[in-house]
Design a protein that fits this description.
Shape: elongated
Bound molecules: glutamine
Number of helices: 12
Number of strands: 9
Strand order of the largest sheet: 5-4-3-6-7-9-8
Distance between the termini: 64 Å
Radius of gyration: 20 Å
Length: 270
């Protein structure tokens, strides 16, 4: 069957997504697809047609997502990593290099697929990284990724920091921050991604409050807290920060859509 005919089969997936599915099945880079012109392998064609009948987000369909140039395994038990979160990692990495040495101890709180913690470990193998999640199923995915990406990180199954006794220099988190009853959520996200990873209570603030209230016991004197945040939560979160870390420096950053997306708290560093 001609590649073009395969791409013309009706489906909810866009043409670009269809190309990704085909190259996934053929184990070929997407750009090499058209060198083939035609696919003769019936098994591949049938599998492709079957996949096109799906509505699943592509990352769940293929069980893979890219983050910071690395391929991560994902399934329906974890949030699909977002490009915004890459910026969170990039920014915290800069701050770590500015304020700490290689021996920094980092906690990725609510690790999901493990993208944040594992990427930081990949950026500097001397970092001591602990990934925490309440979901055992998510931790299974994160562990798989740490093996697959050859990184030696620690894992703890805990509801936030409740069962954690270590002290960290950096706590980084992209907690669930969507308001429970929000209308502004993509139907596909709502239908397929785990609600545990999405919703942060009626005001979206549940996990920020919980983390800020309890994390002092797990932080060294000089430390950084790094959050990804809902674009409309900045003021509320700053107010909570001031309650628990009143003398700390707060840095806010926007994402590439010009929306407030990141907050960094520097404790006793300046
Ligand atoms: N830390 C993971 C990520 O950033 C999971 C976040 C979550 O489940 N809210 O993708």
């Amino acid at each position: 069957m001609k590649i073009n005919d395969l791409l013309n089969i009706k489906s909810n997936y866009s043409n670009d997504e269809k190309k990704i599915i085909l190259s996934f099945l053929l184990d070929l880079p997407k750009l090499d697809l058209f060198k083939l012109e035609e696919i003769t392998d019936k098994k591949v064609i049938n599998k492709y047609k079957k996949m096109l009948n799906n509505n699943l987000p592509l990352a769940y369909l293929l069980n893979e997502a890219y983050f910071f140039g690395n391929k991560f395994y994902v399934n329906k038990n974890v949030l699909i990593p977002r490009p915004e979160t890459e910026v969170l990692v990039e920014e915290v990495y800069k701050l770590i290099n500015k304020y700490f040495n290689d021996k920094v101890k980092i906690c990725d709180l609510g690790t999901g697929s493990g993208v944040i913690g594992i990427t930081l470990k990949k950026l500097n193998n001397s970092f001591d990284v602990t990934c925490i999640d309440i979901s055992k199923k998510a931790l299974k995915v994160a562990k798989k990724n740490s093996i697959y990406l050859n990184t030696d990180v620690n894992f703890i199954n805990s509801d936030m920091l409740k069962r954690v006794n270590d002290n960290f220099d950096v706590i980084i988190s992209n907690p669930p921050y969507i308001k429970n009853n929000t209308k502004e959520i993509d139907n596909i996200v709502k239908k397929y991604e785990p609600s545990l990873a999405l919703y942060g209570g009626d005001d979206g603030l549940k996990y920020y409050k919980e983390i800020l209230k309890s994390c002092k016991k797990n932080l060294n004197d000089k430390s950084i807290i790094a959050f990804e945040i809902g674009y409309d939560l900045k003021e509320d979160i700053i107010n909570i920060i001031k309650e628990y870390f009143k003398d700390s420096k707060i840095i806010c950053k926007k994402d590439y859509n010009d929306l407030d997306r990141y907050i960094f708290i520097l404790n006793n560093l300046e």
